[in-house]
Amino acid sequence: MTTKPSTDLESFPNPARETDYTIRMTLPEFTCLCPKTGQPDFATFELEYVPDDRCVELKSLKLYLWSFRDRGAFHEAVTNQIADDLAAACAPRFLRLTGKFNVRGGIYTTVVVERRRAGWQAAPAVDLP
User: Fold this and answer.
1) pLDDT tens, residue by residue, 79-97
2) Would 1 be classed as within a structural domain?
3) Is residue 7 assigned to a domain?
4) What values do phi and psi take at 87, rounded to 5?
5) Which among 8, 20, 34, 70 is annotated as catalytic?
6) How many independent structural domains does the chain possess?
7) Active-site annotation holds for 32
């Protein structure tokens, strides 16, 4: 069993490449360090993506997120870095990453980052009765 963080994000072939479908994940155990004080910052990430050829492998994602535990990072920077690294690892048609950071100094911070493949359009929303 791996007991060390890793910066490697692995992927696997999308089993339904011909279809636009959304993968949603809640990642509630993110921690990094405040770059100003060195105190821990805690966040829950909500990941939504429409895969193309590849899907992100979950264990590697867990170990990747763990790699931030001892790094200083501003909320905005770390959310964008994670989105960029996920986009590089699996080149999704669409990706949205929402970082919901716990209160710090009486302020809750939420950072929303999107990456979209050029030319990709979402299907129209369907409203059901």
Assistant:
1) 999 999 999 999 999 999 9
2) no
3) no
4) -65, -40
5) 34
6) 1
7) no
